[in-house]
């Protein structure tokens, strides 16, 4: 019985480690706009992404795609801000509509689910949920945070996956 209990605990620890943590970031106000596209972010609560700086300043986005555009070209989108001053990067988990750590999330591209700006990186807290979404919504690929490039974002905007 001890061996079975230990195996179960080990499995829970592995599964827990594979889940992107829920994070706490300020919610966008009704007048907050995405620094990349200018849309009012609060209108799209199921897609909100947020960069929270150590000084408490936050930038909100209407989806993970614009968040990545911002992060990959901060001199253009965030003059006066530095990547090393970022405390938290959050995206909204598709199934649970809660803020999760963007660096630990799993992203599906090429699905039949569109965000406010069209084709989107759809965030999930676990690989299993991303695989389920990929299958259910005709997704093309699952990516991690470090796999997103400016070229990938350009292709996503053009509908090429």
Task: Provide structural commentary.
The protein has 161 residues and is an alpha+beta fold. The chain has one domain (2-157). 29% of the residues lie in helices and 21% in strands. It is built from five helices and nine strands; from the N terminus they run αββααββββββαβα. The chain has helices spanning 2-17, 64-72, 74-77, 127-136, 150-157, and strands at residues 49-53, 58-61, 86-92, 99-101, 106-109, 114-115, 118-119, 122-124, 141-144. The strands form three sheets. A four-stranded antiparallel sheet has the order 2-1-3-4. The protein has a three-stranded antiparallel sheet with strand order 8-5-9, covered by helices on one side. A two-stranded antiparallel sheet has the order 6-7. Residues 1-17 have low confidence and may be disordered. Keywords: Signal. InterPro entries: N2O_reductase_NosL. This is Nitrous oxide reductase accessory protein NosL. Residues 1-20 form the signal peptide. It comes from Thioalbus denitrificans.
Layout of secondary structure:
Layout: H1 2-17, E1 49-53, E2 58-61, H2 64-72, H3 74-77, E3 86-92, E4 99-101, E5 106-109, E6 114-115, E7 118-119, E8 122-124, H4 127-136, E9 141-144, H5 150-157
Antiparallel strand pairs: 1-2, 1-3, 3-4, 5-8, 5-9, 6-7
Q: What portion of residues belong to β-strands?
A: 15-25%
Number of domains: 1
Task: Report the order of strands and helices.
Answer: HEEHHEEEEEEHEH
Number of separate strands: 9
Instruction: Round the mean pLDDT to the nearest integer and report it.
Output: 91
User: Strand count, sense and closure of the main sheet?
Assistant: 4 strands, antiparallel
């Amino acid at each position: 019985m001890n061996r079975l209990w230990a195996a179960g605990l080990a499995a829970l620890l592995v599964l827990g480690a594979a889940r992107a943590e829920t994070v706490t970031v300020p919610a966008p106000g009704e007048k907050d706009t995405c620094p990349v596209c200018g849309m009012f972010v609060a209108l799209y609560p199921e897609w909100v992404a947020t960069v929270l700086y150590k000084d408490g300043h936050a930038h909100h986005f209407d989806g993970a795609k614009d968040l990545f555009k911002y992060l990959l070209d901060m001199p253009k989108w965030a003059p006066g801000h530095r990547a090393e001053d970022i405390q938290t990067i959050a995206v909204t988990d598709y199934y649970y509509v809660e803020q999760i750590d963007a660096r630990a999330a799993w992203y599906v591209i090429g699905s039949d689910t569109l965000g406010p700006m069209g084709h989107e990186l759809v965030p999930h807290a676990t690989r299993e949920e991303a695989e389920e979404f990929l299958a259910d919504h005709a997704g093309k690929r699952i990516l991690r945070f470090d796999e997103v490039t400016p070229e990938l974002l350009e292709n996503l905007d053009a509908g090429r996956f």
